[in-house]
Amino acid sequence: MFEQNKNSIEAAKSFDTNCPLNKFRDEFEFPEVPEECQEKDVLYFAGHSLGLMPKRVRTVMSDELDAWGKYGVEGHFMGKKPWLPYHENITESFSRLVGGKTTEVVAMNSLTVNLHLMLTSFYRPTKNKYKILIENNTFPSDQYAVDSQARFHGYNPEEAVVELKPRQGEMTVRQEDLLAQIDELGDELALVMLGNCNYLSGQCFDMEAITNKGHEHGAMVGFNLAHGAGNLLLDLHKWNVDFAVWCSYKYLNSGPGGMAGAFVHEKHHNDPTIPRYEGWWGNNKSNRFEMKRRFDPIASVEAWQLSNPPIFQLASLRASMEIFDEATMPAIRKKGDHLTSYLEWLLTENCGSFVKVQTPAFREDKQVRGSMLSIKMTKDPKQLVESFKNKGVICDFREPDILRISPAPLYNSYEDVYRLVQIIKEFS
Ligand SMILES: *Cc1c(COP(=O)(O)O)cnc(C)c1O
After folding, report:
1. Cα–Cα distance between 149 and 153 in angstroms, integer?
2. What is the atom index within ligand 1 of the atom nearest the CA of 249?
3. 15 half-sphere exposure, CB direction, 13 A CA radius
4. Spacing, Cα 190 to ligand 1 middle (Å)
5. Which of 48, 111, 117, 253 has most ligand 1 atoms within 8 Å of its beta carbon, as the pocket-test mutant?
6. pLDDT tens-digit map of 64-118
7. Please, what's the largest Cα pairwise distance for the chain?
8. Is residue 227 within 6 Å of ligand 1 at its C-beta?
9. How many Å apart are CA 136 and CA 133, to the nearest integer?
10. Helix %, strand %, coil % for the chain, to 5?
11. Ligand 1 binding pocket includes 223 (Cβ within 6 Å)
């Protein structure tokens, strides 16, 4: 894939010089390295856990502190960006990000909360149609959410919640097996709810094919895009996905506990048969402050909003989304594919005897992964992770032997990737 002479620091540096997104690295603050560390710069590869802080967050946050100080409650209507419609400052960016209409996306709450709100509306089991299909290695919060929803409706999760089945010895699930499993569940299937990419393997599922297959059997299809938003190219409206949720503190760099997003396809707006938990922020804006006795829903996904949102979290999200708008997702994914492939190639060239990449290999014709590589270490994974501490490397380790490494296209350089692989190589 890469020519042999790319296995050098000079080649890495030259990729950086020629990279159109290289300039965005300066937009971010990098963590300091601990004193005992042998290196002076950090090698940050944990963007799938918590994205780095965009420098401009300080400015937008201080603007809102100033507005609060200066206007008090009047800040809802005054200042550069009044708070009352503040969440609308995110809408267009989210719409571009996930391929939804502006009426289909909203920034609200946090991720698992939004997942429950969506399950309340879109998991409506009946006696013979009650099963939920999830990943085999789901993020625990998703598992707990669907289990508790099944129980809430009077079903035993052991029976109602069905997991994908990878083949013996395989970590990822083959597309044809996934679709076959949906067929097998047939009429009993009420909901398909998958994370995309999978948080552990980095595998990206074909969302359009899954949505079509689920719909063939009358099931609802939703995705948790915690690892998809800001990472994958998404076209939710066109793919006819019923709902999606995502967080913004991973690939989207909005800060710890940052606000989540939600997508509800417009075909479900204004459908009075869909149950929903409701709060005053979902009420029509024109009469919200008349404080009427009966809920009058906004005719969009905004009807799912409950509370007036935390402005400081929205402010940092706004700053981070500006960067995504400037860089654009197609360019981010393009660099991501090249940078991640470079990492994979360097690992295979230099550490192939004890490192095995679990994430599907890049494909030109189909999106099968994002920017995270999940690697299995056949040699002392814990010791390697221990040794990272003195080298300034930040990535993450999952028991018993999985390392997740994400070169983030907005702030990681080719040189970062090269240096990381040298550190892993030295460890051998
Ligand atoms: C990160 C992540 C979560 C975290 O949930 P919060 O509600 O934001 O704490 C949940 N699900 C998946 C798939 C994740 O990757």
Report:
1. 6
2. 8
3. 25
4. 22
5. 111
6. 999 999 999 999 999 999 999 999 999 999 999 999 999 999 999 999 999 999 9
7. 71
8. yes
9. 9
10. 45, 15, 45
11. no
